[in-house]
Amino acid sequence: MSEYLAVLLFAVAGIGIVLITFGISRLLRPHNPYPEKNVTYECAEETVGPSWIQFNNRFYIFALIFVIFDVEAIFLFPWAVAFGQLGLFALVEVTLFLMILFFGLFYAWKKGVLKWV
Amino acid sequence: MAEHASVGIMFWILAIVVVVSGFLVVSLRNIFHCALFLMLCLTAVAGIFITLDAEFLAVAQVLIYVGAVSVLMIFAIMLTRDLADKQIPQTNKHAMLAFLGCTAFVLGIILVLSGTDMWRWAKTPLPVENVMTIGKLLMTKYVLPFEVISILLVAAMIGAIVLARKEKA
Q1: Where do the domains of chain B lie?
Q2: Does the beta carbon of A66 lie under 8 angstroms from any beta carbon of chain B?
Q3: What is the pTM of this model?
Q4: Could you report the per-residue pLDDT of B86-111, keeping only the tens digit for each?
Q5: How close B97 gets to chain A, by Cα (Å)?
Q6: A78 chain-B contacts, CB cut-off 8 A
Q7: Distance, in angstroms, between A104 CA and closest chain B CA?
Q8: What is the spatial distance between Cα B157 and Cα B151, in angstroms, rounded to a whole number?
Q9: CB–CB of B51/B11 below 8 Å?
Q10: What ipTM does the predicted assembly reach?
Q11: CATH topology for B2-99?
Q12: Which among B53, B71, B165 has CB closest to A111?
């Protein structure tokens, strides 16, 4: 449990740095907004269209495949932790596990899902 | 005992984060902000798992819920057309009904749990190296379920590909 103290310290430092820097700049900066200043900065170009746009639908299939391999990673994680105490049999098992999953990736590849047209 | 007290404090901080961010998920107007607060809520739940010594659950929570499920939600939001349109209402008019349903659900859980002593189990600490134990069991006793999982995942992947491609054609 106590090794998570480092995680806690990182979280506190991460939140703290953001709060402190934004807090200091809020205290120091002059407050004088006008319409031109509030425009989105785009390297001195006029902004075209809203920033909320519809992204390409093609991204979704990549997200779905990512979820599958994410779930796979969660099953490999305990194996990786116990790796030093497990024998060759475990390695064979995990290889079989990965081979079955790579069949899915192979299917996606053959179907042309991974191709960006 | 000092560690026990600090774990208690951490639990309450995390519990407040979970409840506040959970409330923001259902009350904010911008659905994208709702998704971000859902990620915060799920991360804090992972923290609560750590205060219970359930490391593997915490890792699964971060990898699957904060990582994958939230990414799916954010993708779904960003792929939706006209999401930023002010004309589209992002909440419906069943807030009262949802509130009543959730209250009944929470009361039901409290009623059931107070009748048993299941929740006391959390007081007996888990074995320290529970990830290691899970890893060993997956490779010895539960090796067949472990392989079946990969077939299930392949089936899910092929199903997702078939469904997502049919939409396009």
Answers
A1: 2-99, 127-169
A2: yes
A3: 0.79
A4: 566 666 678 788 889 999 999 999 88
A5: 31
A6: 56, 131-132, 134-135, 138
A7: 5
A8: 10
A9: yes
A10: 0.75
A11: Four Helix Bundle (Hemerythrin (Met), subunit A) (1.20.120)
A12: B165
